[in-house]
Amino acid sequence: MQELTHYINGAHVKGQSGRFADVMNPATGEVQARVPLANAEELAEAVEAAKAAQVGWAATNPQRRARVLMKFVDLLNRDMKKLAEALSREHGKTLPDAAGDVQRGLEVVEYCIGAPQMLKGEFTDAAGPGIDMYSMRQPLGVTAGITPFNFPAMIPMWMFAPAIACGNAFILKPSERDPSVPLMLAELMEEAGLPKGVLQVVNGDKEAVDAILYHPEIQSIGFVGSTPIAEYIYGTGCSQGKRVQCFGGAKNHMIVMPDADMDQAADALVGAGYGAAGERCMAISVAVPVGDKTADRLIEKLVPRIEKLKVGPYTAGDDVDYGPVVTAAAKANIERLVQTGIDQGAKLVVDGRDFKLQGYENGYFVGAHLFDHATPDMDIYKTEIFGPVLTTVRAQTYEEALKLAMDHEYGNGTAIFTRDGDTARDFANRVNVGMVGINVPIPVPLAYHTFGGWKKSVFGDLNQHGPDAFKFYTRTKTVTSRWPSGIKDGGEFSIPVME
């Protein structure tokens, strides 16, 4: 059995804690590797290497740092197939989904190649008599990121690419469920010319997370995961004087107006609700048709599409719509919530409970489910299921549909499908959700805009990637400069007085 490592100071390092986690193959339920779980001492070793490497890296001009990222993009494209296969093997998502995972991370790296432009400061000539003022954006030092299982390539790159472009060192603590791709990314960054120690991978569980939170040399922490853990990391990290951004859970609504193109809406819901087995924080998990006639038409369109979905292992290639969920525990939780929905009175229109895949009976496959006539007090509506389950809540008016999205505790993403521009504009302006799609089901912004939700989906005041990333990973220093003309002749020099 393969035994994975940490990646510290440019070398693969065996775990020293004596603790390991199993890395499963979700399609078969078999253990395929073991990953070490770091203790505080191992994390401290990585921090010391990062601290030493960061000084020289920060002194490297932004253009040369950008050239490393340019080379890294070339290497990502070269190894795309290898990265996608490794990702699928541990996560379970299909190869096209896995390649998309890498691609969306790559796009953020491409954006970060523009670091020289993003890091420019401001200059004011003659702010006072003989006085100039200018600002600089300077790196924080040693930074860290704690990333989830569902995007083991994209989210690490969303964090370490801007951090490194800004001149920081970065320590990545990936999910212990699928750690191979993060290790591969660290190797590729060094192949691209990144100095040893600037990017390191320390695998672990809560012990490693707490070591990151309490280490005094780590200046900032990024996190993506569930809301309860996001709250813990944000509160603890801030109490330790660190800059922290945490992204938590989601329950994304898609409002379907009576004038919507029902075929377009149904196709969008199937892709957004069941792609990647629903294990996406931007998945549409609640459909809100406005009016019973709209709801009936939508359900009529959805049922045959959902029943045709093909579920299987990534090795089946393009003949699969989605694969298994990540663990046996995740599967059990989805099945529990489906039963709760039935018990609480929702109508299960498409029932995937009896789904079995011949030859993969021990895999973590979950059939597609569709609920209708759910209500906001039901657990399947309130809870982020993170599985192939779409819940329909009927609204009688546009205002009622809007209120559903606005009243939910999560505010990650939402969408509206309509042909009416005034309705779409009103929805985009009023809804208290961070990312809005108009006839777009998964409104994930491109790399040059920022990604982030509202309400209990986010903790912190700056979003991921885009311009916010360069703000998060730097501090502003403002310099007031005066060169008195008489000083060369022995004139007296004093603290400048602004006039």
Structural descriptors:
about 500 residues; alpha/beta; Aldehyde Dehydrogenase, Chain A, domain 1; Aldehyde Dehydrogenase, Chain A, domain 2; 23 strands; globular
Model description:
- By secondary structure, this protein is of the alpha/beta class.
- It folds into two domains: 2-248 and 457-479, Aldehyde Dehydrogenase, Chain A, domain 1 (3-Layer(aba) Sandwich); 252-438, Aldehyde Dehydrogenase, Chain A, domain 2 (3-Layer(aba) Sandwich), CATH 3.40.309.10.
- The chain is 38% helix and 22% strand.
- It is built from 16 helices and 23 strands.
- It has a seven-stranded mixed β-sheet, sandwiched between helices.
- Strand 19 (413-417), helix 15 (421-430) and strand 20 form a beta-alpha-beta unit.
- The longest helix is centred in the N-terminal third of the chain and has 20 residues, at 40-59.
- The mean pLDDT is 95.
Could you give the topology of this structure?
Elements: E1 2-3, E2 6-8, E3 11-13, E4 20-25, E5 30-36, H1 40-59, H2 62-78, H3 80-91, H4 95-112, H5 115-118, E6 123-128, E7 131-139, E8 142-146, H6 154-165, E9 169-173, H7 180-191, E10 199-201, H8 206-214, E11 218-224, H9 227-239, E12 243-247, E13 252-256, H10 262-274, E14 284-289, H11 292-307, H12 328-343, E15 347-350, E16 369-372, H13 379-382, E17 389-392, H14 398-407, E18 410-411, E19 413-417, H15 421-430, E20 435-438, E21 454-455, E22 458-459, H16 467-472, E23 474-482
Parallel strand pairs: 1-5, 8-9, 8-11, 9-10, 11-12, 13-14, 13-19, 14-17, 16-17, 19-20
Antiparallel strand pairs: 2-3, 4-5, 6-7, 7-23, 12-22, 15-16, 18-21
Helix pairs in contact: 2-4, 2-7, 3-4, 4-6, 10-11
